[in-house]
What we know:
Low-confidence stretches of chain A: none
Number of strands of chain A: 8
Shape of chain C: elongated
Subcellular location (chain C): Membrane
Helix content of chain A: 40-55%
CATH superfamily of chain C: Fumarate reductase/succinate dehydrogenase, transmembrane subunit
CATH class of chain C: Mainly Alpha
Radius of gyration of chain C: 20 Å
Structural class of chain C: mainly alpha
CATH architecture of chain C: Up-down Bundle
Strand content of chain C: under 5%
InterPro entries (chain C): SQR/QFR_C/D (IPR034804), SuccDH_FuR_B_TM-su (IPR000701)
Transmembrane segments (chain C): 21-43, 70-90, 102-124
CATH topology of chain C: 3 helical TM bundles of succinate and fumarate reductases
CATH architecture of the largest domain in chain A: Up-down Bundle
CATH topology of the largest domain in chain A: Methane Monooxygenase Hydroxylase, Chain G, domain 1
Mean pLDDT of chain C: 84
Number of helices of chain C: 5
Oligomer: heterotrimer
Distance between the termini of chain A: 35 Å
Number of domains of chain A: 2
Helix content of chain C: over 70%
Main location (chain C): membrane
GO cellular component, one term (chain C): membrane
Largest sheet of chain A: 2 strands, parallel
Number of helices of chain A: 6
Strand content of chain A: 5-15%
Order of helices and strands of chain C: HHHHH
Distance between the termini of chain C: 61 Å
Strand order of the largest sheet of chain A: 1-4
Amino acid sequence: MDPLKEPVPVMPTAHYAMGGIPTTLWGQVIKDEKNTVVPGLYAAGEAACVSLHGANRLGTNSLGDLVVFGRRAGIHAARFARDADYHELTEEHLGESRERIERIKNSTGKEKVAALRAELQQSMMDNASVFRTGELLQKQVEILKELMDRYKRISIDDKGDAYNTELVEALELGYLLEVSEALVHSALNRTESRGAHAREDYPERDDENWLKHTLAYKVEDGKVAFRYKPVVLGRFEPKARTY
Amino acid sequence: MQVTLKILRFDPAKDKKPRWETYQVEAEPTDRVLDLLHKVKWYQDGSLAFRRSCGHGICGSDAMLINGKNRLACKTLVKDLGSVITVEPIRGLPVEKDLIVDMEPFFAAYRAVKPYLINDEPPPQRERLQSPEERARFDQGTKCILCASCTTSCPVFWVNGTYIGPAAIVQAHRFIFDSRDRGKRERFKALGSGSGVWRCRTAYNCTEACPREIPVTQLIEEVKRAILFDSF
Amino acid sequence: MAIKSKRYQEARLEASTNLELYWWVFMRVSGVVLVFLLIGHMWMNAVLVDLNSIDYDYVAKRLSQTTWKVYDWLILALALLHGGNGLRYVLDDWVRDPAKRFWTKVVIYSLLAFLFFLGSLSLFNYDYGVN
């Protein structure tokens, strides 16, 4: 295309998700503020949160997530696998996953994955972007409730078992909704501005009340509980990023 | 504009042979073929299966045969193709479903050339230094994204299937010509065999197909020469 | 279909000879040598002498000399090997079915061996009545 004759199409994308599944320095998933490890479960990369970025990941720093902590998680997982025994896979364990898949495959609902996802993306962009207010976040809480309700009525065309990418997209949408919920509720809860979380109604950083990690727990659709974990500061004080 | 999209589809559960399906899609001239496939999958027929990940030509997932040429769906614009677009899976690999092929033979060839640094010498105090010229020697091979466009456009690969293929040779080239690497003899074993570089007939299909503009055929010839001068 | 070796250890086992390299070099060298041999051959038979004056006696006289026997035998051997190997490349590239490929090769190689035998026999084992 010729930029002299027509405008260059530009669109923003989310290129990194801060926060994630909390892990130890060895990639072991932890489940609470006391750093209780979930044995045998590991997370690394953008999905994980070793917490090396503070409240705003700086450029190229996610390489650390990948190269350093990916390697450490791999080493530790290999060590764990050497001594661990196989668990028996019972119907009880399989049931929930199987039911998740079967429900989507057998559903005759009218909702479509792509349309629902587009609505989720648009509303998250509008209401829960970097600059946010309590009002908008509250609005998004309601929107998410509605979307989660509609998600129960999605159906798919592909009923097959081989490379069912439509089923994968449908499952992923469910996870996207849950992650969105954790994000929006936590953002609404945190009444300060810090790093990439800029509350226009609370523009100042508040170390007295909020120098702590949020751990979000799903109670039920639309209801999230919080716990908090202290920040390990070490050598660096939290400071405003100025240029 | 209205685009007629013809896709060669195959469902292993239902079809004995691949079949053509035609879709009408509303598209902008600046839309990518990947956008058209998404429009079909998301709004017309969800059962369409294809691989894609990053969407801008880095991950190498969405190589397909578009209007008869191997290209990345995410780097091919509608305005360069016209209003009738055909999409088929890349050739020479077994089709799993629709546009998804079994990449295992491709990666078996990739593994066979040992695509990693081999050097058993004790590491120096600091980095293994390399001059800009030494780095430039193998620069072109580093651009490879393993999309398989080259290997699956190669007539020798289509017919016999035992040919190691251009992509694996490009990967070998990247290490053979790396001044820090000491593993070229090990790689020559796979490359010099009956299924190695000597099967190349310089058809240049690979060079034309490469979405990263790597001069694939030239690199293959350089590997041939390296083996030759290593043996005589 | 596909690459036979799934792991590089297998590829290593499969790949223990330099045979294909030697064939590749042979094709290049024999190609160049053949060009000169054939230019010489044509020079001799079409430029130095009038084509129409070539008869049995002329050929018989020439082939009674060892030098010419070797010269012509070189052309025969190199042409059959060069052409035969080229044909092998083509068969490897274009005949999909392994059994069919094998039998086509058996027939072609037998034919080549027969031609070579026949040519060598007529070059070295016959005095052409000249003495």
